[in-house]
Design a protein that fits this description.
This is ATP-binding cassette, subfamily B. By secondary structure, this protein is of the alpha/beta class. 65% of the residues lie in helices and 10% in strands. The structure holds adenosine-5'-triphosphate.
């Protein structure tokens, strides 16, 4: 139970819902226990020939009234307890999601998205069940069991009660045993189903590759395999459920069998009345559910605790990158950037991704970084944005170590166009205005999309800036995506602009237009341009050439060409490629 400690605040805040829910639950339990008494009186009167038609109507009415009372009470406890467990689910999901977003990218590199999704769905569901239905079953089964047994002993016969109760605990044992197996099989059904959805989703997403490689048969064969697996797992679940329910019915019918034989004898011998016998059967019937509930409740609680422990482990995960105690806010960043003796290894790697990096970019200057793939270009940006922290060397902005700059203010002062151009499945307007809390104003949106040379494309769509992107919307070309991503960064208008291979998917003519358009902006900002293409970087104030994590050459376009080194080699190779194409 210690596992639920982090939810203490929630329980305190919602204690009245739980208390009212439990009170209603107890009220309807008490009403349920009246029904056998009504039947007892009515039957005894019938047997004695004292019941008139109006009497029958009266007792019938009592039964209906208890039914109504139970229905009303159920409505309230469902609302109070199940409703609160839904709030708990919302609260926990919000807390977990909010916490996960504080964690560093490295955490997401080491965790599978599927596992995180499973925590956010299955584990939170298990906690909701334990603290919703679990509580209800627990209170209900204890209360009904005690009261029904007391009523059976007090109003009918002790011996009959002991005999009748003999088989009932087997129901609890069976529910416990079968409950575990059913749960495991249910989980494999869920896994098989999610495998089926994954394969289906991937087949539709990759439809162009499948068709162009004429591999429809292979894909159908794969699909059939997972579909068969799903069927097999479902049949296993059906089989065990098929045994479980009749078995429980059978065990409870043994009790009724004993009662009919022994209780019937007591009626014949006139030790108990027929009304007692009927009431007793009713009490016994009421006891079957709590016996099952006891079994379920133990399983629900065990699963809930295990899930809560997994969620707690995630909630205790500390963000690797946090503000230092004396972090300062950069309200008007000028944009001088300095890397001093920076060396860096990714936490999961043995080798250095960057070694002994030194450079300075003065306010308003442009630095270009070129180098072969995997040479460490993006890593420089990752470090500047503090997506990873360095242990060797220092990075300064406006002469302040970035470790001493408030993280939010550091990132707010940098407009970044990432290499993967990730866009959200919302409208183009919302994507371009992503940096703002309020909807973006038309002027900024239009201006930045014009500068990114994507305005004409956007207004050619029927819904223009309201065009929704992604699966249920328009699919943009690689180059259009890059340019929307550039527009998003330009709209943010921060003192530092970083373009990470952001023009690779556009043709050289569009590239030229974008670079020309950016000229005025770039003059005002400190800019880092990462590119494979020399044409993109040739006008930069400084160019550094990276190779295997080290700066091997540096200078301007002209001075680097004169060096006759890697830069010149890359330049000539690209000239040749251009000529050939
Ligand atoms: N998150 C990460 N975890 C571990 N290693 C990484 C990570 N990101 C990059 N690396 C490794 O660090 C090295 C430098 O990668 P980086 O992405 O900086 O190269 P790049 O020059 O930007 O390459 P490209 O031009 O292909 O984008 C590579 O060996 C890469 O495999």
């Amino acid at each position: 139970m210690k596992a639920f400690k982090p939810l203490e605040d929630f329980f305190i805040q919602n204690k009245w819902y739980y208390i009212f829910g439990i009170i209603w639950l107890l009220i309807i339990d008490a009403i349920q226990l009246i029904v056998p008494q009504i039947l007892r009186t009515a039957t005894n009167l019938l047997q004695e020939g004292k019941l008139t038609f109006s009497g029958i109507l009266k007792y019938g009415l009592y039964i209906i009234l208890t039914g109504l009372g139970i229905a009303i009470g159920r409505y309230f406890w469902r609302n109070y307890i199940i409703g609160t467990s839904r709030k708990l689910e919302y609260h926990l999901r919000k807390k977990l999601f909010g916490h996960l977003l504080t964690l560093s990218p490295n955490f997401f590199h080491t965790q599978k998205t599927g596992d995180l999704m499973a925590h956010a769905t299955n584990d939170i569901n298990a906690i909701r069940h334990a603290l919703g239905m679990g509580i209800i079953m627990f209170v209900d089964s204890i209360f009904i069991t005690i009261l029904a047994i007391v009523m059976m002993i007090r109003t009918t016969n002790l011996r009959l009660t002991i005999i009748a109760l003999f088989t009932l605990p087997f129901i609890t044992i069976m529910v416990r045993r079968f409950g575990k197996v059913i749960h495991n099989r249910f989980r494999t059904v869920q896994e098989a189903f999610s495998q089926l959805t994954d394969v289906t989703q991937e087949s539709f997403a990759g439809i162009r590759v499948i068709k162009s490689f004429v591999q429809e048969d292979l894909v159908i064969e794969n699909f059939n395999k997972v579909n068969e697996n799903n069927l097999e797992k479902n049949l296993k679940l059906v089989k065990i459920s098929g045994v479980f329910h009749p078995l429980i019915n059978f065990i409870s019918s043994i009790s009724f069998f004993i009662i009919i034989i022994y209780g019937g004898r007591l009626v014949i011998l006139d030790i108990i009345s027929l009304g007692d016998f009927i009431a007793f059967n009713n009490y016994l019937n009421l006891l079957v559910w709590p016996m099952m509930a006891m079994g379920w409740v133990i399983n629900l609680l065990q699963r809930g605790i295990a899930s809560m422990e997994r969620i707690n482990a995630l909630l205790e995960e500390k963000p690797e990158i946090v503000d230092s105690d004396n972090a300062i806010e950069l309200n008007s960043m000028k944009g001088k950037i300095e890397f001093k003796n920076v060396s860096f290894k990714y936490p999961t790697k043995e080798n250095y991704a960057l070694e002994d990096i030194n450079f300075t970019i003065e306010e308003g200057q442009t630095l270009a970084i070129v180098g072969k793939t995997g040479s460490g270009k993006t890593t420089i940006v990752n470090l500047l944005l503090r997506l990873y922290d360095i242990k060797e060397g220092s990075i300064l902005i406006d002469d302040v170590n970035i470790k001493n700059i408030d993280l939010k203010s550091l990132r707010e002062n940098i407009s970044y166009v990432p290499q993967d151009n990730f866009l959200f499945s919302t409208s183009i307007r919302e994507n371009i205005g992503f940096a703002f809390d309020e909807p973006i104003d038309d002027e900024t949106m239009i201006q930045s999309s014009k500068l990114a040379q994507v305005y004409d494309n956007i207004i050619a769509f029927p819904n223009k800036f309201e065009t929704v992107l992604g699966e249920r919307g328009v699919t943009l070309s690689g180059g259009q995506k890059q340019r929307v991503s550039i527009a998003r960064a330009l709209a943010k208008d921060s003192p530092v602009l970083i373009l990470d291979d952001s023009l690779s998917a556009v043709d050289t003519e569009t590239e030229e237009k974008i670079l020309n358009g950016l000229k005025n902006i770039v003059k005002r900002k400190t800019t880092i341009i990462i590119s494979h293409r020399i044409s993109t970087v040739k006008d930069a104030d400084h160019i550094i050439v990276l190779d295997e994590g080290r700066i091997v050459e540096r200078g301007t376009h002209e001075s680097l060409l004169e060096l006759n080194g890697l830069y010149r080699y890359l330049y000539e190779k690209q000239l040749l490629e251009e000529k050939i194409s």
